[in-house]
Design brief:
With 128 residues, this protein is α+β, with helices and mostly antiparallel strands. 30% of the residues lie in helices and 48% in strands. The chain is globular and about 40 Å long.
């Protein structure tokens, strides 16, 4: 697979993530991760496995995050693994920006699909 094809697969995966988030469908988001997927959220322990990942994202939605906007800035591919660097914005239903920052995701091919495997992010906003 060419670098451009991998980049397109990663962008497509992010579009699915954003659409599921807007639909408040944490179960669909969890399915975008590998079976051994892991979130590495700031200020918290790792979140491992699809069930826990679903609960994490449902918790974010329940706290008022209505939209997650992801912007892929860089993709480096290594056969069946890719490293993505990007930026994110989390928005409330009122349009208020709740957080803005950057992330790194390690993607892996699972079955015939590219899935998020390790997902780490942090804020770019000054602490209050």
């Amino acid at each position: 697979m060419t670098r451009a094809e991998v980049h397109a697969k990663i962008v497509s995966g992010n579009q699915k993530f954003m659409a599921a988030f807007e639909q408040k469908n944490a179960a669909t988001i969890a399915k975008l991760y590998t079976a051994g997927g892991q979130l590495l959220p700031p200020g918290a322990d790792p979140v491992s496995g699809r069930e826990a990942i679903q609960a994490f994202w449902q918790g974010a939605m329940d706290m008022g995050v209505a939209q997650a906007t992801l912007e892929t800035l860089e993709v480096e591919s290594h056969r069946e693994t890719a490293i993505e660097v990007g930026g994110f914005t989390l928005t409330a239903s009122t349009g208020q920006v709740l957080d803005r920052g950057k992330y790194v995701v390690i993607w892996k091919v699972e079955g015939r699909s590219w899935k998020l495997h390790r997902d780490i992010w942090n804020t770019s906003q000054a602490s209050k």
